[in-house]
Every structure is written in structure tokens, then in C-alpha cells.
Amino acid sequence: MRKPISLLAACGIAALGLAATPAHAADPSFTLAGPAEVGLRPHPGQSGAPQKTSVEFRLVNDTASVFERQSTFTIDLRGLKGIADVALAKQQGSECTLTEAAVTCKRPALWKGETGVVDLDLSAAPGSKAGATADLTVTGRAEGATFKAATTKVRVGGPDLVLERAALKEEQKPGDQQNLSVVFANEGTESVRGVVLEMRTTHGIDLLEQYDNCSYSQDTGQGQPLNTAWSTVQCLLEGEYEPGSVYGVDGSLTLKAAPHAFADTLTYAVYADGHQPKAGTASRKPTGGKKLAVRERAAKASAQSADLDPWNNLQEFDFRTRNSADLVAWPVALAGGTGETVRADFGFRNNGPAWVAQLRSAESVARTDIVVPAGTKVTKVPAGCHGVNADGTAREQTLGAPRYFCSTGHVVGEREKFSYPFELKIEQVVANAAGSVTVGRATPEGTKGQPWDPNHANDKTPVVISAKDGGATPTPTATAGSSPTATATTSATPTATAASGATANGGLAATGSSAGMLALGGAVLVAAGGGLVLAFRRKSATGTHA
User: Do 71 and 107 contact (CB within 8 A), yes or no?
Assistant: First the structure.
């Protein structure tokens, strides 16, 4: 006879059944983004024709995968009637359509990261009044996804801070000083309450004075080229800055070329208080009792609004300093028997005095060209290096190549070391077998000395394999101009590659020797003479950095 199941037990069984049922993953959520506010120059504009202002809406997919369903994005334009005219930007593709009532865009998939949704050109409508506002909101929809909308406030009129270009010398030498004169005007239709002056300098340019109404920070993060090695100063200039008036900063702002200066950049800009870029997290404020002031240069006889033309708020200079940087390849000597695996640290150091940076192009500053000694086979390759054929042409297999190219990032510090740890198997001890390490610039033919390096004699150095079993030990032949270097044998026990301190683009910064590592050395050579200038790509007319 079956026993009856209690109500409590039945509920427990049901609960177990529910727990065993797999849960459906929540629908992904995506965020739409755009500027908080844009200002339009009143119709018809200074030139007699409506002046366009661009608005870009973007989508952020911070999920772990691509969303592979069609999405539709819509912007309701009815609120802009009589305030602003709308057109699709010229670069906008056919995936967007524009009607009098709305803009509609479709996307077949949403890739990871940030992507553009639509670019619009806005201009003040005929008959629109200064101060008129309307909201521009973009929404999204797709099966199996949710979207967070973004709204941009459109305003007719507003302030327009315009920054005058200072008279600075772009050619200089280490130790040179010059004053940065800051003059700006408000050419808009509304006053600005409080202006923030921002000055950003790369590693080779110092700003000597410090003021209590300024904050000072150093950018240390790896990222886009112009995020590396910058110092940022932001100064709050209190007061009301009226339309039609011109103002000048009343205080010294002295720029000095550091001993390691070479190819450097200064940017400086003025922003309405509250619209400046976010300052660095490690910013500091002096307490010396001195403030940077402003005085009115010329006068012409409320809520803070967006700048009508933010592109004329900023000026930029590239400085070229007569300086040099001596790149020195260090020699490598190791020992082992047939069948053993040894570890070798190939690389170079910058003896300075200059740092070198490809801030515009983000291209690699230097290549390390490694020729592997005969009788050895590379079994482990560090990041930032790839195998090539003996003549430098491309090959598919990275391991076992006779030659390797290793690249730095776009910045090489004035005393920085770049180390590339390899593992090599000694297949045969070949008498007097020698490879080489060369540092310089990449060329189609191989690797050549950099034009700003004053001493090419130490660009190339030997790599020598010696026998450990008492056989003949070849003597390393130093490249002309190199100094004697102490060497030591590596352990014959196979070891894992040690990576100590990654540098940009996969290079490894040498931070000293460790157990089992090959002892490396090389005499420090003093750089002398003037180096050639590192060429920069100029920015585009829109002010975008390369």
C-alpha cells in the first residue's frame, strides 16, 4: 500500500524541480550616448549662412559578446521644429534615413565596445530666437535586448570662447625658457561664469610656476598615444566673461625644455567652468599663496551653456629640441651542451640624454633585430617579437626562425631598457658560431641606425654560444665602439621565460637579473652631438590627434 505524500514534502519536491530548471539569461542591456548639450550659432550666422554644429550619437556594448540581431534606433525631431534644422552628416551611410519627423537607423549587429549610431548636422532655423531650447533623444529597440536612451539639449545661442595662438618658438635646445601668453575672447551671445585654463605638456616640457587656483596631475596610464607621459594643469579663473570682451591671463607661465626634451607637444585650452575635461585622479593643489589672475584686454560697449564652437578653444604646439638619444644593444654570451635549453635576454637600453616618442603616429620607436647563432633553435618567443627568414622576409612559423624582429612601443624613456627573454635549445655546439643583436629603425632591407642616434658603433653587438663540456670556447668579438661587458653562463636546466614589467607594444622592461637568468651588461656611453628631429604628423584641420 502506497503511503500518502505530505503537502510539505510535495512542496519540497516541486521546489527541487524548479531549482533544477535552467534559468534564462537576462536580456543584454546597451547604453546610448551623446553630448549633454550643444549650442547653435543664431541664424543666419557670422558669414550670412547657417553655421552647422555636429552631433554624434554612439552605442556602448560592454557585454562579453556581439549582439547578432537587428537593432533599430530612432530620434524624434518634432520638438526641433522652428528651433533647428537637421541633416544627416555627409559621411553617414545608407543605413540611416531622415524624414521631417524622425531619423531612423538600423544595425544588423552590435559589436563589442563603442560604435557610432548616427552623425547629425544641426543649424539654427530661420526665425529662431536666442535662448530657445529643445531635446534631442535617441532610443533603441531590438528583440531580446534593452536600451538606455540618450538626450542632448539643443540651444540657440550661447558663449563662444576663442583662444588666441601664442608666439612660441618651436625650435629649441635643452634648458630654453619661454613665456606662454594666454589671451582669449568670448565671441558668443551669452556670458561665461568662470573659465578653466588647461595646459598639457609632454615629458620633455616643464611648466615652472605653480598657482593656488591650479591643480597639477601626471598621466601615467597606458593608452592612446597622447595619453602617455603627459602633465596636466587646470586653473580656475573666476569671474564673469561677457560677450564681445577679450581677456588676458595676468601672470607668468614659463615653459622650459628639460635636459631630456626632444620632440614634445604643448596643448592649452579654455573651457567654461564645468565643461572642462576630467582632471587626473592624482591631482594636487599648491598652497603657496599665489593665484593666477585675469585682466580684461578690451571691452565692448543665467545658466551656463555649451560653447558654440569648441574647436577654437584650443591651441597646440610641437616643439623640436636639438638633442640626441643613444640606443645601445647589449652583448649576450651563454654556454650549454648539446640538447640543453638555455635562456637569453636580448635587448637594448637608451643612454639618453633624450627620450623619444612617436606621439602623432603611435609607431614603434625602435626595432631590435636578433640573428640566432647557428646550431641553436628558438623554442620560446616573448611578446612583441616575431620570426622572419634570414633575409628579413616574412614567414609563417614563429618558433625556430633564424632571425627575429622585436618592436618597442611608441615611447622610449631617456634611461629605459627593453629586454626580450628568449629560450633556445642547443642542437649542436658550432665552433665560433655567433649571432647578433642590432637596434635601430625598421627598413625594408632590415634595421638601420636612427638619424637622431649619435653613436651607431654600439647599435650592433654579438651573440655567442660556448660549450660547457670543456671544449673550445669562442671569444666574443665586440663591435667597434662597444665597451667590454661581463658575461656569465646560464643554467643548463630548462627554465620558464620570466617577464618582468611589460612595456608598450609587448616589449619587456629590464628590471635586473634573476636566478637562472643570463647576466647581461654593457658600459654606459655618453651621448653627444645634435640629433636630427623626430618628424610628427600634423593634426588635421579639425584638431583631431593622429
Answer: yes
